[in-house]
Each structure stands twice: as C-alpha cells, then as structure tokens.
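I hope you will forgive my troubling you with a question about protein structure. I set the record out below, with my sincere thanks for your time.
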Amino acid sequence: MEVIKLTCINCPLGCALEVRYIDEEYVVTGNRCIRGKKYALAEISNPTRILTTTIRVKNSPYMLSVKSNGGIAKDKIFECIQILKEIEVQAPISMNEIIVANILDSGIDIVATKSIGGDELYG
C-alpha cells in the first residue's frame, strides 16, 4: 500500500499528512482539522496553486503585482506565466481589478494586488 506524504499549507501548523488508498477510498491521517483532509484529497486528485507574479506597466520602471483569484491547475502554471509575460497594463489600475479574465478558460481571473495611479509613475 502506497503512502503519500504531504504537508498541509492551510495554516501555520503545517500538519504532516499521510494519504492511503484503502478499500477503494482515500484515507487521510495526520490532519488536525477538516481543512487538512480537504487539502490532501484535492492535492492528490487535482493539485492547484494560487499564482503570484508581476507584469509590466506601460511607460514605467515599476511592475504591478498580480495574483490568481483562485487555484490554477499545477500543470497550467507555466502556461499562465507565459501569457502574463506578454501583458503590459496602462495605469491607473485599482486593487482587485481584473487584468486577465478567465485565463486559459479556467474560470480563474488574474487580478491586481495593489492600486497604482498615473502621477507617481510618470513624474
């Protein structure tokens, strides 16, 4: 019986999780709460990650920090980054403004994590 070992990332406790396939179902041990169990089951079936990166701002030396507003399939992260490398936005931008809607038809948007105005960027 294969044991999959994971560390839960839902809180600072970092529970050491073990997942086993027993009697046609996955059994999770080591979790101190239900979120740990949900994390482990999601991680072995469809691992996702929140994507954080920066994109260019037109006519500015500054970059805009952005993130996904939900988990993106781990195997699609690199493809998303390639798309975002080509994006350049025009200030002003508001925090939580959608920069790329429904990236890769995932149902997940890429949003700004801060507001930037035009004045401080262009002198």
